[in-house]
# Entry
Amino acid sequence: MPTTCEPSTGDRIAVVVGSTRPGRICPGIAAWIRDVAQQGSPLRHELLDLADVGLPLLDEPLMAALQRYEHQHTRRWSATVSSYDGFVFVFPQYNWGYPAVLKNALDFLYHEWRAKPAAVASYGTRGGNKGIAQLRTVLQGLHMRPLQQHLELVITETDIDDNWQLKDIDTTLRPYRDQIRAVDKQIREALNAL
Ligand SMILES: Cc1cc2nc3c(=O)[nH]c(=O)nc-3n(C[C@H](O)[C@H](O)[C@H](O)COP(=O)(O)O)c2cc1C
# Structure
């Protein structure tokens, strides 16, 4: 697994860890994507783990578009999202959709997402294209700019050990290196087009 990141001073891209359940494999996958995307890129790719963000289920009385936030956790989340120029959402397909924790995190805000490039990377036994389709619709509703390039990472039972952890993440994800590089390139192009 690549462990080093090129130093860079460019725009900040959040690689969002979109599963928060105990025993999840998402942090390792997101870190692997982050490291490959970072290699040679002028962008700064940073992990943004929704487990660390720790939002409750949406508890704001007014809709996010009004930006009259009652809770400190919402203001903190607003500042975090505002500080990024683009996003790579990494998530497992859950029952043909994407995780509720990710939808909840998106719904807390509105303007903060607007016009920002958004890449999606799902994983599942068939890659997770149904979750991707649903998330892309929501990202369009938020007026983000979903990239054409997306990642569908196929993870089958042969990749997984008895504790449902990836046996060898490099072997499983290596075939997607070029696609990850293409995602980074498209994010840069989208940012340049702003
Ligand atoms: C609630 C739930 C629903 C799932 N639904 C699907 C599915 O629709 N398609 C699929 O390929 N895998 C599905 N799986 C298997 C997940 O791909 C696998 O558990 C994966 O490790 C989940 O990611 P995580 O460990 O980062 O949470 C599901 C798992 C869970 C927990």
